[in-house]
């Protein structure tokens, strides 16, 4: 039941390779398509291709720090729902009209080059910088952020030339573009969520409770600073089919012993089960809303959010877990962990004697 959902082919590696070669890629989002080229690799030829098959409005996605270093202000106050256009520029070197493909390529390369200074640019010009969000597509899943993220993931300067293709994404691409690597903004989001860990380990300690001795691993969430715990029984590094419980903190149940939810009992049963199994992990996630806060009496597992599963999966990957048996009545955690790189080979419920029963 858990292996029937085929994993989507990751289109990002092919796009990254193309960007390193200086080739354009096609980026799709919300029914629109954009052509994207790494700013440091763009040439007069590739800029001419971009201009010919796009709206011709060439932009360069740049990080805020880079715009500040080049003294390029935004055209208007930043708005979370809109692209943050900055004042247009041209590169001074070899400047004539500034509008030719060759000159716009030169300007884009200048924006990306670390030695460029504010005095090397003329304002206004024919290339429009766009400030991207610090968190990239994980903060704003939009073409500028995706374009800059792709360049960074390719090992290049996070600066990308991009322009919209006039035809909607439902229409076939021209033959000259149909041969290019193509992906979506959602692909970039999924790729970053899978390969970039949102947490980092900060320490370990030994803890003993009524079930026995465990090793507690503390992690800090780099997004909001929340601390999470992984309570580990035995050696799980390299382990296959490791019993795993993802438990979202419930103050009422875990600490105060509320009988209006199953959280405390589920947590206790999971600790007993992993200890009895000789190895296992209880990932205890703090700072997230437990399901029982919304539905009294609801099970505490299997209904985590996408961010919950991402954090839990990266904790398990850091611990070296190769595959897991999820201790939950609901397969939601199994699907979520699998989405972020932890293969799940089954689900089980902790029994009253500390054993496991298949779900």
Automatic annotation (TrEMBL):
GO molecular function annotations of the record: 3,4-dihydroxy-2-butanone-4-phosphate synthase activity; hydrolase activity; metal ion binding
The protein, known as: 3,4-dihydroxy-2-butanone-4-phosphate synthase
Catalysed reaction equations from the record: D-ribulose 5-phosphate = (2S)-2-hydroxy-3-oxobutyl phosphate + formate + H(+)
Source organism phylogeny: Bacteria, Bacillati, Actinomycetota, Actinomycetes, Geodermatophilales
Superkingdom of origin organism: Bacteria
Keywords annotated in UniProt: Hydrolase, Metal-binding, Riboflavin biosynthesis
Xref: Pfam families: DHBP_synthase, GTP_cyclohydro2
Top EC class of this enzyme: lyase
Transmembrane stretches, start-end: none
Family membership noted in the UniProt record: In the N-terminal section; belongs to the DHBP synthase family.
InterPro entries xref list: DHBP_synth_RibB-like_a/b_dom, DHBP_synthase_RibB, GTP_cyclohydro_II, RibA-like_sf
Assigned EC number: 4.1.99.12
Organism of derivation: Geodermatophilus sabuli
Domain GTP cyclohydrolase II: 204-346
Function: Catalyzes the conversion of D-ribulose 5-phosphate to formate and 3,4-dihydroxy-2-butanone 4-phosphate.
Recorded metabolic or biological pathway in which this protein acts: Cofactor biosynthesis; riboflavin biosynthesis; 2-hydroxy-3-oxobutyl phosphate from D-ribulose 5-phosphate: step 1/1
Example of a GO cellular component annotation carried by this entry: cytosol
GO biological process: riboflavin biosynthetic process
């Amino acid at each position: 039941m858990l292996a029937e959902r085929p994993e989507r082919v990751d289109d990002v590696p092919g796009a990254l390779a193309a960007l390193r070669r200086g080739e354009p890629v096609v980026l799709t989002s919300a029914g629109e398509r954009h052509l994207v080229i790494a700013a440091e690799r763009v040439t007069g030829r590739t800029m001419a291709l971009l201009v010919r098959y796009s709206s011709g409005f060439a932009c360069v996605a740049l990080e805020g720090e880079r715009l500040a270093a080049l003294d390029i202000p935004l055209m208007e106050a930043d708005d979370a729902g809109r692209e943050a256009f900055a004042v247009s520029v041209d590169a001074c070197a070899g400047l004539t009209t500034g509008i030719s493909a060759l000159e716009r390529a030169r300007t884009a390369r200048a924006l990306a080059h670390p030695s460029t200074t504010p005095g090397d640019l003329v304002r206004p010009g024919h290339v429009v910088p766009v400030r991207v969000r610090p968190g990239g597509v994980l903060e704003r899943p939009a073409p500028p952020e995706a374009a800059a993220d792709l360049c960074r993931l390719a090992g290049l300067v996070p600066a990308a030339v991009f322009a919209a293709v006039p035809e909607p994404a439902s229409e076939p691409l021209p033959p000259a573009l149909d041969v290019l690597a193509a992906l979506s903004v959602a692909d970039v989001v999924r790729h970053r969520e899978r390969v970039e860990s949102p947490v980092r380990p900060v320490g370990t300690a030994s803890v003993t409770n009524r079930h026995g001795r465990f090793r507690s691993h503390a992690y800090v969430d780099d997004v909001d600073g929340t601390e999470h715990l992984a309570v580990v029984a035995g050696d799980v590094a390299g382990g296959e089919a490791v019993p795993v419980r993802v438990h979202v903190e419930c103050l009422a149940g875990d600490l105060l012993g509320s009988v209006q939810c199953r959280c405390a009992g589920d947590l206790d049963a999971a600790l007993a089960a992993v200890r009895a199994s000789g190895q296992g992990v209880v990932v205890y996630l703090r700072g997230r809303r437990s399901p029982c806060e919304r539905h009294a009496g609801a099970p505490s597992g299997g209904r985590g959010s996408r961010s919950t599963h991402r954090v839990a999966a990266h904790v398990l990957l850091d611990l070296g877990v190769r595959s897991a048996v999820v201790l939950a009545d609901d397969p939601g955690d199994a699907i979520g962990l699998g989405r972020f790189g932890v293969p799940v080979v089954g689900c089980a419920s902790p029994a009253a004697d500390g054993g496991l029963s298949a779900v």
